[in-house]
Write a structure and sequence with these properties.
Largest sheet: none
Structural class: mainly alpha
CATH topology of one domain: Serine Threonine Protein Phosphatase 5, Tetratricopeptide repeat
CATH superfamily of one domain: Tetratricopeptide repeat domain
Shape: elongated
Number of strands: 0
CATH class of one domain: Mainly Alpha
């Protein structure tokens, strides 16, 4: 009798051993398919593994990853719920659920999961990254900065962390801090154009035009065919009242792309400031040919025609600008000033009053001259 009982026990042991082995085999197959991005195949194998062993939290975790990659975020979250139920301190499960909630636009839920992951393992970077992603989406830039500061403490050699922290400092208008971080990212070898572009913007906000020009020159070296970098150089020249340099830079931009109305209009302003009125008029004409609805080009041409004593032509242009945008305070202001030059104080006053009502800042001296 005993040999028979022993045989039965042995059969059951072999059966369950085979069952466990079979579950592990499917798990391994699923992992192999996940590695080669066969997500649908991985889900099939992980599901078979769970049918044989439904209490393995890692299998739920990796099936959730496969579902996430297939953009089935709801299914991924359900699997991660189960993984966490089985293993309440599963760091990766909380991190992955945070990412899936982020992709589902549940940013608050994603932050809560990342908070738990940070508590479980405060020395691992993934949870800080997950939390920073969602904090950025809800414009909590201070939290983003805090998380990337923690990440940098853990990994001070990764340039991207300084870049992301720099972006958030830009959002908080901490331009000096942004420059410091973006400079560090560049020093660590991340000399991509975005770092220079963002640092350039920070320099411009601080009106540090010389530093901004240096970054623009670096951007030109990275991409010499980008006309907008020359345009930005011209814009800085305009701020610095370096009209000759501005004309040169706008001309380089036009040489790269002769179909941008904005740049012709910008160059016309520089020509006008240099008292080269015919060249300025020619550029405005070209800007309007390229964009017949370019209001600023009509206004600029009107001002040039006023200087050239072509008041009739100036009125036609300024009226066209107002016709294109009846809520343009700028248009009414300059029309009022032209009328003031023509000694038409009554109508000048009406236009300046209209400009003020539309929110355009009218100099008090001009207003008094027209309306008193």
């Amino acid at each position: 009798m005993k040999p028979i009982l022993l045989s039965i026990v042995l059969v059951f042991c072999l059966f369950f051993a085979a069952l466990a082995q079979s579950s592990n085999d499917y798990y391994k197959k699923g992992m192999a398919k996940l590695e080669v991005e066969d997500y649908a195949g991985a889900i099939v194998d992980f599901t078979k593994s769970l049918e044989l062993d439904s209490i393995d939290s890692d299998t739920y975790l990796y099936r959730a990853k496969a579902k996430h990659f297939m953009e089935n975020y709801k299914g991924a979250i359900e699997d991660l719920d189960q993984a966490i139920k089985i293993s309440p301190k599963h760091y990766d499960a909380y991190c992955c659920r945070s990412f899936s909630k982020f992709s589902s636009k549940d940013y608050i839920g994603a932050i809560k999961d990342a908070n738990i992951a940070v508590e479980i393992d405060p020395g691992s970077i993934k949870a800080y990254e997950a939390r920073a992603m969602s904090s950025r989406e809800i414009n909590d830039h201070s939290s983003v900065i805090g998380d990337y500061t923690s990440i940098i403490e853990l990994n001070p050699k990764d340039s991207s962390n300084y870049t992301f922290r720099g972006y958030s400092k830009m959002d908080l208008k901490n331009y000096e801090g942004a420059i410091e971080d973006l400079t560090k990212a560049i020093e660590l070898g991340d000399s991509c154009s975005l770092n220079y572009e963002n640092r350039l913007q920070a320099y411009l906000e601080l009106r540090d035009y010389q530093a901004a020009k240096q970054d623009l020159n670096k951007l030109i070296k990275l991409n010499p065919a980008d006309e907008w970098n020359y345009k930005k150089l011209g814009d800085i020249d305009r701020e610095l009242k370096d009209f000759a340099s501005g004309i040169k830079n706008y001309s380089k931009a036009i040489a790269l792309n002769p179909f941008l109305a904005d740049i012709y209009r910008d160059r016309s302003v520089m020509y006008s400031s240099s008292k080269k009125f015919m060249e300025a008029l020619s550029d405005c004409n070209q800007a309007i040919r390229l964009n017949p609805k370019f209001i600023d080009a009509y206004v600029t041409r009107a001002l040039i025609k006023t200087i050239l004593n072509d008041f009739k032509g100036a009125m036609l242009d300024i009226n066209k600008g107002i016709e294109l945008d009846p809520k343009s305070g700028k248009g009414y202001y300059y029309r009022g000033m032209i009328k003031l030059d023509l000694k038409d104080k009554k109508n000048a006053c009406a236009d300046l009053t209209k400009a003020k009502s539309l929110g355009f800042e009218v100099l008090e001296a001009d207003f008094k001259k027209a309306c008193n």
